[in-house]
Amino acid sequence: MKVSFQFKLFISLVAFFSVLFALLGVYYYIDASHQLYQEMSTRAKIQAEEIALMPDLRQQVIEEDPQSLTSFMQKIAARSDASFIVIGNAQGVHLFHSVHPEWVGTRLVGGDNQAVLEGKSITTIRKGGLGVSLRSKAPIFDPSGRVVGIVSVGYLTSYLDSITLTKVINIFIAAVLLLIALFIFSWYFTRSIKKQIFSLEPREIGLLVRQQKAMMESIYEGVIVIDRHRRIEVINHAARSLLGLSQPARLLRGQSIDSVIAPQPFFASGEMLENDTHDELCRFNQLTVLASRVRIMLEESLQGWVITFRDRDEINSLSAQLSQVKRYVDNLRIMRHEQLNRMTTLSGLLHMGHYDEAIRYIQAQSEHAQELLDFISSRFSSPTLCGLLLGKAARAREKGVALSFDPACQLDRPLPSLMESELISIIGNLLDNAIEATQRAELPHEPVEVLIQLNARELMIEVADRGIGIDPAIRDHIFERGITTKTRGDHGIGLYLIEHYVTQAGGTIEVADNSPRGAIFTLFIPADGPVHSRHEANYAS
After folding, report:
1. What is the torsion angle, in degrees rounded to the nearest 10, for the CA atoms of residue 186, residue 187, residue 192 and residue 195?
2. Which pLDDT tens digit goes with each residue over 174-190?
């Protein structure tokens, strides 16, 4: 049977306080009993010594007059709280007993009279005629200083224990009432704690904490949680990596956000308190990011903020890759459009009965297309790459530019160091740049020459055009982000991606001028490079 955290906490509190009160009760009983015995021994000693100094008592003891002694001592015994008062002579014989007058003439019991007869006052716990008692004995001296009698004043231990027990019972009743109050408090206290932790069990809370930590570390975006005093509570690995922080998260916890990220309006208290924001372009130290800020509220009370941010350059790279995919789709759409136009023309010729013209049209239109299709499908094993090349060829024809494939083209297997999407991005960007450069050159437009060849050592990709060429002013920076000669489209992204993918695969890029004009891009990518961790090529067997 699974016991809830609330019930276990309640039982624990009850058990703890019960044991605590039991130990305190035992300690109090022992301490109270000890103090009572000390107090009563002092009281008995004082009474015994005061009685022993009474001149009348001394005279009656010397004369051994029991009748007069009894009449005198009964008055004293009536005013005393002692359990008994006993008077004895020097021979240890009773002259007076406050409880049992019939014991007069019998010997004193206890065996502790010798020290008293020697002139000393003593306090002992002994068993006498009435039982075990705490008693104090004092000697009675005659005028010459000789001991002539004994005064014994005592309290029964049963009487003292009853007094202690009465005190303990009173304290126990108060303790029980207090314990009941504590039980009620414990119950409502545990209910309050249960409510604050959303009725979760400690194990569930621990699991949630571990899940949160694992989730935070697995998030690709940078995440920072700060409290209402702008101190860091949580910072994940991605945030530390993006900000270039070498300290572990535990050392950064508690630091001001301004000590980690240079102060800026994004972290201004007034703005942060005012509203949330999403995908705001700002600068964290030396990094340009898109940042979001969301308030943490608990019962209408501000607790802090969650800040997430992403590197803008990475977002731009993803956007560029998406643009390549879109261009690939456009190429397929162009090919489909061309085929529909041809099919419409052919359908019209057949409908009018011009069968000879239809045959000549088919032969004219399909001869080149079939030749190109046969060449590409026989030289490249990747259906995706074949589709890209056919689409680029169709798009180039629409723009008045031809693609000329070298007969040495061959790519019959995937590269371990290069994903298919990356290869598509490289070839697509090179062809787009060459087509546009050729289109911007003077007429007539000469073909773009393409060589894609994989041998035992490396993959060589060469694209040569006779377009406008490369401006010398940007030649040394052509692979940097934002550097471009284009007048439209994605500016400064394509060559940047090419250089990134090739370098990542361990390859090199050579750029040369073509004769009499234009440019030649030559890429060399090792065929036996390291296996790509996210390899996703889908090559036909």
Report:
1. 140
2. 878 887 887 788 777 77
